[in-house]
Amino acid sequence: MKVSQGKSKTHLFLACFVVAAIAVSIFSGCSSSSSGSSKALTKVNLQIKWLPQSQFMGYYVAQQKGYFKQEGLDVNIISGGSDIIPEQQVNNGVANIGVTWTSSLMKYQEKGWNLKEISQTFQKSGMLLVSKKSSNINSVADLKGKKVSSWFGGNEYELYALLGKNNLNKDKDVTLVQQDFTMNQLISGQVNAAQAMTYNEYGLLLENGLKDSDINTIDMNNAGVAMLEDCLFVKSDWASKNKETLVKFLKAANKGWADACDDPDSAGSYIYTKNKSVSLAHQKYMAEQVAKLVETSDIDESKIGYMDNGKIQQTADLGLKYGLLSKAIDVSKVYDTTYWKEATENNS
Amino acid sequence: MKSKRKNWTDYTLPIAFGVMIILLWQCKVFHALLGLQTYQLPLPTDIVSALSQNFGKTLSDCIVTISGAMIGLVIGSCIGFIFAVIATWFPKWGYGSIILISAINAIPLVALSPIMNLWFKTGMGQRIGVVTIVCMAAMTFNSYSGLSSIKPFSLDLMQMTAANKWTVFTKLRIPNSLPYIFTALKINIATSIMAAIISEYFATSTSGLGFGIKDNLRKAEMAMGWGYIVVASIVGVILYCVIVLIEHQAIKWHPSQR
After folding, report:
1. Which of A179, A328, B9, B157 is deepest in the core (most CB within 10 A)?
2. What is the pLDDT of residues A128-141, one digit of tens each?
3. Cβ contacts of A104 on chain B, cutoff 8 Å
4. What is the count of residue pairs from A and B with beta carbons less than 8 Å apart?
5. Across the 258 residues of chain B, what is the mean pLDDT of every consecutive 10-residue run?
6. Do B26 and B44 touch, CB atoms closer than 8 A?
7. Which one of A108, A149, A178 has the shortest CB-CB distance to B220?
8. Are residue B28 and residue B50 in the same domain, yes or no?
């Protein structure tokens, strides 16, 4: 009986596998055939880095207001998740355009993946290292001997740079632990300091009843260890064959971002209708904070997505020094400004 | 019937087959078949060199994961066996324990790991907790079969000699259940390593094979990620062989071992 049970399990598993494989092949077959025979709209798949939330509001607003459609595009936004890697999705052709961190993209490029950055959405780092006032971490040096959490998986390098720059050994002077996607470890005191994005986790702390005055923050920009985050990237050979589509996408996306930054409140509300993530207030908060990363003192709405060679160089330099990259890279090969320039040339 | 003496081809042919697979892999035959690039499926030489560069870290991660898996395996198997004994000893109501174990067995691993995160402060506690629960079921089901599927004439003989319940249990039921227990252990070896690795995906701890696999695959260190996968399989095979050897010694009388 034991044996037959095991066998039938194997058979069941095999059957499920076969069914799934057939389903996938039919599904992919359908989508490619329908895109070929559909109306005038060109289908574009956008892979975002995380769940639908205000972090990606520009694309949602462009969709809401029909900017993509005006350019003749039918943009499908594919939700991300903790083990959905945008670089892998774009490389495999699941998506045409992806959102990822510039630092992470560099790593994939170094490993031989044929991917290129085409727009730098966030001009500044949105990363903070936060701690409760009671932990008495007023400077980086105070982190010595403390328990610090990180999301890892490529998100740890700004933290490594922060520690390294301040002469702390990441393996000996602090205890690094894995951080989940809530802030409960910090709130309950399991860790002394945690990574937090200005637009997401910091807001979670406030929503959990902490006040600004209860939280100590170290800002990666002020600490001189900022590495670039959200950017748009494509597979090089897809981009060269679909230049027109890509330029249209960037035009519409930038219009969406400009509107969203003008009115983060309604952008946040719209995104909450798309995906009820955390709360309406949280999405509005996030929209407001993200706007500050997209439009800065030197980047107005006509230059959204501008790729600053100096900042990209700093990302690569820090990456090389603190373990992200294994050899120096030519940063001019990280990004390609052709599409962005064409998309923004008529902006005053 | 096969002759008992092993021929040299019994060893060399399987090894040659394995070597051939690795050679095909190295010569990118699988890459051509599946349309993969080497950054998607690293070559064996790259995996070996990544492993040798990070040997110390991999070894310590391996020890962490395996010790957690083994402790969990022992605790889980013992609890599972106790449940089977209860079900056999008290046939009227004890069968409830089998149902209970079935219910626990249905909890998905991915749900179990975050729960254990809440229960235990350390990564090791969490890992052992997950493995313990996952290892209970196979042991309960198998040893219950072994303890209860007694040949009627053996039981008759025991009763004829006025053996009491305890004697029947130790002299008849336990020996009868041994092959079943080893089957459960062989299942649990693989399960425990898998459970330990999956639990590390959700753990706060940054050591262990599971964290190494997840972290490296996410940040494009494919060769190192595969290195961890290779280590996990090698350890799995070694532990399986150990159990088979112990089994061979423990139940020499059983037809399956002759």
Report:
1. A179
2. 999 999 999 999 99
3. 219-220
4. 54
5. 64 90 94 90 94 92 95 96 93 89 91 87 90 95 93 89 90 92 93 93 87 91 93 92 90 74
6. yes
7. A108
8. no
Domains contained in chain B, number = 2
**In the prediction, which pLDDT does A32 show?**
43
* Model confidence pLDDT, tens digit, residues A294-323: 999 999 999 999 999 999 999 999 999 999
CATH superfamily of A39-123+228-344: Periplasmic binding protein-like II (3.40.190.10)
Same domain? For B2 and B127 the reply is: no
Q: Which two tokens stand for residue B77?
A: 């198997």
Nearest residue, CB atoms, A154 vs list B114, B121, B218:
B218
Interface confidence, given as ipTM, is 0.71
Residues B11 and B74 in one domain: no
Give mean pLDDT, residues A187-196. 93
Does the beta carbon of B218 lie under 8 angstroms from any beta carbon of chain A? yes
Query: Domain check: are B71 and B25 in the same one?
Result: no
A326 to chain B nearest CA, in Å?
A: 11
Chain A closest CA to B100's CA: distance in Å? 19
CA nearest A148 in B: which residue? B204
Distance CA A307, CA A316 (A): 14
Predicted confidence at residue A53, as pLDDT, reads: 95
For A61-126, list the strands marked E by DSSP. Answer: 73-78, 97-101, 115-119
Written as one letter, the residue type at A128 is L
Question: How far apart (Å, rounded) are the C-alpha atoms in residues A20 and A254?
Answer: 38
Contacts of B223 in chain A (CB under 8 A): none
**Top-confidence residue, A347 or A77:** A77
List of chain B residues whose C-beta atoms are within 8 Å of the C-beta of residue A87:
220
Residues B157/B241, Cβ–Cβ less than 8 Å: no
What are A44-92's pLDDT values in tens digits? Answer: 999 999 999 999 999 999 999 999 999 999 999 999 987 899 999 999 9
**In the prediction, which pLDDT does A187 show?**
92
The pTM of this model reads 0.80
Q: How far is B220 from chain A (nearest CA, A)?
A: 6
- How many Å from the N-terminal Cα to the C-terminal Cα in chain A? 77
Q: Are residues B25 and B106 in the same domain?
A: no
Give the CATH number, domain containing residue B198: 1.10.3720.10
> Across the strands, what pairs with A100?
A231
| Residue numbers of the domain that contains B22 | 1-38
The chain A residue lying nearest B38, using CA atoms, is A112
Does the A127-219 domain belong in CATH 3.40.190.10? yes
- Same domain, yes or no, for B202 and B158? yes
Same domain, B47 and B32: no
Alpha-carbon distance A177 to nearest alpha carbon in chain B (angstroms): 5
Contact A226, A107 (CB under 8 A): no
Of residues A111, A177, A179, nearest to B39 (C-beta) = A111
Cα A130 from Cα A138, distance rounded (Å)? 10
Domain with CATH 3.40.190.10 in chain A: 39-123+228-344, 127-219
B18 and B118 co-located in one domain:
no
For residue A217, give both structure tokens. 């923050």
